[in-house]
Design brief:
Layout (H helix, E strand, L loop, with lengths): L16 H6 L8 H10 L7 H9 L9 E3 L10 E3 L2 E2 L16 H6 L7 E6 L6 E6 L10 E6 L5 E6 L2 H7 L7
Antiparallel strand pairs: 1-2, 3-4, 4-5, 5-6, 6-7
Length: 175
């Protein structure tokens, strides 16, 4: 069984001009690029599901941007919204190794160094999603967490892993 079995990857992305300019790397990541970026990101091994998704479409803005939550955050009482998912590369500003990549949030905004910041929210840097390696170590399977800069960098569990996060995204919330 592979990652994202039965998942319609082609329908997942919204290739707007903004997404293509800011997020989408021009080619799938090579093994060499993945290894060098993992080293640059602090030695965190990217999850196989992240690499699998980026191998089909390397970063971008999903068509489904809401993740339902049972715990309130500064985003909302019942969900988190994302604006994009960082590709594996250095060629776009919003790529993992780009100008506003994972290390930017740790080094400049002083987000806690718990792993890899892979998605942003409409809060303009005041809330980020991260692959959290605290429980599994730098080579394990990280959880997905929301880190809230406005609440003293409070960390809220979002999903048990990256694939569960992607599969849990919806295009609208129940009313």
């Amino acid at each position: 069984m592979g990652y994202f079995d039965g998942f319609e990857v082609a329908e997942f992305w919204d290739d707007s001009a903004h997404a293509l300019k800011q997020y989408v790397e021009e080619s799938p990541p090579s093994r060499e690029l993945i290894a060098s970026l993992e080293e640059e990101l602090g030695g965190y091994r990217l999850p196989g599901s992240y690499i699998a998704l980026m191998s089909t479409h390397n970063g971008g803005v999903p068509a489904r941007v809401y993740f339902p939550m049972t715990e309130a955050t500064s985003c909302a009482d019942d969900h988190i919204e994302i604006t994009g998912i960082r590709g594996i590369g250095r060629g776009r500003p919003e790529s993992l190794g780009g100008e506003f990549g994972s290390r930017f949030w740790i080094d400049w905004w002083e987000y806690p160094d718990i792993g890899v910041y892979f998605a942003d929210t409409p809060a303009d840097g005041h809330g980020m999603l991260a692959l959290d390696y605290r429980a599994c170590g730098r080579h394990g399977e990280p959880t997905v967490v929301y880190v809230d800069q406005e609440d003293d960098f409070a960390i809220t569990l979002v999903a048990k892993n990256f694939e569960a996060f992607v599969r849990g995204l919806v295009n609208r919330l129940p009313t």
